[in-house]
Design a protein that fits this description.
9 strands, disordered C terminus, extended
Amino acid sequence: MDRPTSSPPTDVPPPHPPRRGPTRSGLLTWIALACALAVLVAAVWDRRREPVGDRTVGEVTRVGVAEGDAIPAYLRAASAELAALGPADPGPGDYALVSFATYLTPAQLASALGATPVSAVVARVPLPGRQTEIVRIAALRVPDDVVAGMAEVAARKDREAADYRARAAAPAASADPELRRVYDTGAAVSAEEAAGYRSGCACVYAVVVRDAPAALRALATRPGVRVVDPAPEVRRLDRTVFTPPLPEQRDVARPPVDTGLADPTPGAGALGDSSEAAPTVPGSTPSSGGPAAGPGSPNPAPTS
């Protein structure tokens, strides 16, 4: 029996073509877009970030008595601030500027301070009627670091004296008696300073310390301590200028007149009412290119 032949239905749609993945060119396009987006996000984030830097750049803290101020008022204000100093946070304590009633040798300084931690000392050679340079010597161990620092200053003063003598011998000074006198006097003063520091002179008149408030108040009662000026605002010593009163200053902080004697008394170490500090420029000598500092041109500067 013949079977009827079935024909395919005419209403069935043709099969779908096989699906294919993205082409290589399309994939590369998406990768490029993703990279561009990442770069854009990074740029926006970098612009929104605040620059990180040292916020203390350019800031200078001054501790001590300013030129022209009354010294008795400064002593009272510093003592009142010390009495009102609150408890310190856990740590090394607060910085303070300690001024002495007289100039001290390194050994005397050790006795005056006891166990108080020291950061630096302030010194000058007190020649009568002379401006001498104020120097700040880093010192953690007293008296050893003070003696070593004085030896370095003495070597620098020897170089200054030699430079002054060379200038005095130059033709320009030979033709100008006043200029020759200035150079001769500068050489003599520098030589006296060198001799003083080399011998461990009584030249230290202030120190920078760091301790707890109670210890600072106890230090203020020790013999020979003139005043303890607390400076809790100090964070960096390299950006702080200390201006302690000289032991011979009693009324107003001002640069006394330099008498301009041609020949300082050899070995002089007594206090003089006209003693004051010459400009303090670390490492400066007359050969640095600027005009030589003469005793007849007072220009005191704070120690820094």
